[in-house]
Amino acid sequence: MAGVNGDRKGKKDDNGMGTAVYFLLSNAKLVLGVGGAAMLGIATLAVKRMYDRAISAPTSPTKMEPSGKRSWEEPRWMGSSQRVLNHDMKSTVSRSLQTLPTTSNSFEPDCMRRATGRGRSAAGETDLLRARMRLSLQEKLWEFYQERVTIPAEEQATARRAALDICAELRIFLHGKLPDMPLREMYLSGSLYDDLQVVTADHAQLMVPLTLEKNLWSSVPGEDTIMNVPGFWLIRRENLEYFPRGSSYWDRCMVGGYLSPKSVLGVFEKLVAGSINWPAIGSVLDYVIRPVVPSETLTLEVQYKTDRHLYVDFLPLLVMDDGASLIAKPHRLAAERHENLWRQSFRVAETARLRALDQEDGGCRCACLKVTKAVCKLNPALARLSASQLTSAILLLSEKEGDWTQEALADRFLQLLRSLVGHLEAGRLPCALIPKVNLFCELTPVEVDELGYTLYCSLSDPEGLLRTPYSD
Q1: Cα R_g (the chain), whole angstroms
Q2: Rounded Cα–Cα distance for residues 100 and 376 (Å)
Q3: Residue 78 near residue 453, CB atoms below 8 Å
Q4: Count of C-beta atoms within a 10 Å radius of residue 82
Q5: Burial readout 374-402 (b: 16 or more C-beta within 10 A, e: otherwise)
Q6: How far is residue 440's CA from residue 25's CA, in Å, rounded to a whole number?
């Protein structure tokens, strides 16, 4: 033991961990033999190395690697592979959030920080380096926006024309097949029509508004039921004693006294996927059209060019008296248990608010949203983050941050990443329009951990998010 203690003289204090390790190894041979002691030594030293790196992360937020690339020790210790955060790792992430940057100014190596105390000449050089680093992410974000995010106008127009052709065929078929079905005029919607679609024009929504009799149906908020799910609604059948079952066309889709979105989708699925001769229609339109199976909603895949595919979601829609839009898209985690729940859609209102804010100050909110959407679309580890979640996160950030000029894109992008990590750590992302709605309620704990880990690691190298596996 004396020899062990003597060898460690002058080394940095490690809160007793090193002493415990060397004591364990020096006595292991007496119990386990030479071979057992060797195996124990390898395992023990590996644990100590992880411990040393873990405790060093918060006190040493940045370091310079031999290549000159900046990184945080914590994400490097965690590893670069996609892995799930356990509770201890999540606690470390939460503590370390206090040391992470909030602006692109924070991306500077330790040597630059030390230089600030070397006199006025060194301070001027440091300011220059800081400015260069600040511009680096800004330039790469706008370059990414131009090369990867933006969709050529011709491609968007062609995709819209294909979606319009499908909409026209469905309208003709439904009106001819079921003329008594109470429907309002169908219309196309989605990010393809809001100039918020990114990377490729591959998705559209066909909204199919249903007409309900006001005296026969009423809406019940999800939080007012035993299920307690804000953001979802029940459509309850009323006055059955005066207007028996069959008085409304949609009584055929009633389950347990409520209008079931699953049953409504089933009715349209039999018609759209089972009755329409899509190969014949496709040959006339020079498209290849086929229903997507399986799908949580009714979706058509349209191949309108050899290398171009468009997915059209067929979405039954209810518009309430208060303006709330409810769509027949099931709860992702409890579709069977909550099969009567209609999902409230915030897309139109969120998009309108985002654009209004940008118009007021010439801001970069929409650009920030499109960049982040593209990052999530091109990185499989972030695919579970939806446009609605990202939009709400930006709207919430807009309430705290006033500078959304084009020159502040890098700062706001970093703030958005950091705020998403915080929301994931809390397991809650409030809807910007209705805060009681948790937009993370349909993510599993494993998905929350994986998203949090990926975004947390990206804070050490945000430019890495722009170097996607699919980049040219």
Answers
A1: 28
A2: 21
A3: yes
A4: 11
A5: bbbbbbeebebbebbbbbbbbbbbbeebe
A6: 47
Name the residue with tokens 């020790």.
73
123 touches 113 (CB < 8 A): no
Instruction: Determine the straight-line distance between the first and last CA of the chain, rounded to whole angstroms.
Output: 59
Using CA atoms in the order 462, 463, 468, 472, what is the torsion angle rounded to 10 degrees? 170
Q: What are phi and psi of 158, to 5 degrees?
A: -65, -40
Structure-block tokens of residue 9: 């003289």
What would the two tokens of residue 313 be? 């979601």
**In the numeric block, which tokens belong to residue 357?**
């804010």
Going by the DSSP 8-state scheme, the letter that residue 58 receives in this structure is T
**Can you give the pLDDT at residue 7?**
43
What residue type is assigned to position 84 of the chain? V
Number of Cβ within a 10 Å radius of residue 330: 21
Measure the CA–CA gap between 317 and 325, rounded to whole angstroms.
Answer: 7
Across 28-107, the runs of DSSP E, i.e. the strands, are 63-64, 70-71
For the chain of 472 residues, list the mean pLDDT of each consecutive stretch of 10: 43 49 49 46 45 43 40 35 46 50 44 45 63 76 95 96 95 91 94 95 96 94 90 95 94 94 93 89 93 85 93 95 90 80 95 96 96 96 96 96 92 96 96 96 94 93 79 42
Instruction: Give the C-alpha separation, 131 to 124, whole Å.
Output: 11
Element (H, E) at 366: helix 365-378
Say which amino acid occupies 387: A
Query: Which residues have CB under 8 Å from 113's CB, separation 6+?
Result: none
Strands 203-209 and 308-319 come out as: parallel
- 130-167 core/surface letters (b: 16 or more CB in 10 A; e: else): beebbeebbebbbebbeebbbbeeeebebbbebbebbb
| pTM metric for this prediction | 0.74
Q: Is 132 helix (H, G, I), strand (E, B) or coil?
A: helix
Among 385, 414, 419, CA closest to 399: 419
As given in the structure block, the two tokens for residue 10 are: 């002058």
